Amino acid sequence: MARRFAYFIAGWIIWLLLGWTLNYQEVVAGAAVALIAAGMFGGYLPLQPRKLLNPVRWFWLLVYIPVFAWQCLKANIDVALRVLSPGLNLKPGIVKIKTNLKSDIAKVFLANSITMTPGTLTVEIKDDTLYIHWIEIRSDDPEEMAKMIKGPFEFFLKKIFD
């Protein structure tokens, strides 16, 4: 029951932040949607309430958002320059990288963060290994490639989820 309540509170807060209004109808609608979602899915979600409501984790999430946006912007510019450069020889391929993240949700967030940055696509997650399709393999050193692909994502996701 505590898990469902924690997800209700988190969902309602997210609703209020995204709507950015304290209009009575919006507050009630957000509470209803959060209550239904928590009732239906609260038992399946992976985080413990103590972890979910930890303000330090929320702080790191708020720090992560602009870092992620910056990485996406840089990747968008990189891909746009590649598209606008005729005759550019690309070297696409699948890269195998290891992650230090322990929880499944952290690994999924890392995979999604990598996939949402243009030029990369997470193909598979297997234990602590991610297989990433990369638009251009720039190095033969696996450690260097992993550092380039994961960027700062892993550092922040470890603080948020592990």
Layout: helices, strands, pairs:
Layout lengths: L1 H18 L4 H18 L7 H4 L2 H30 L8 E6 L5 H13 L3 E7 L2 E6 L7 H9 L2 H9 L1
Antiparallel strand pairs: 1-3, 2-3
Helix pairs in contact: 1-2, 4-7, 5-7
Radius of gyration using CA atoms only: 19 Å
Distance between the termini: 22 Å
Shape: elongated
Instruction: Count the beta strands.
Output: 3
Number of domains: 2
Strand content: 5-15%
Query: Structural class per helix/strand content?
Result: mainly alpha
Written description of the protein model:
62% of the residues lie in helices and 12% in strands. With 162 residues, it is mostly helical. The chain has two domains: 2-52, no CATH class; 55-161, no CATH class. A three-stranded antiparallel beta sheet has the order 1-3-2, with helices on one face. The radius of gyration is 19 Å and the shape is elongated. It starts with a helix and ends with a helix. The mean pLDDT is 90.
Question: What are its keywords?
Answer:
three-stranded antiparallel β-sheet, 162 residues, mainly alpha
Short characterization:
The chain has seven helices and three strands.
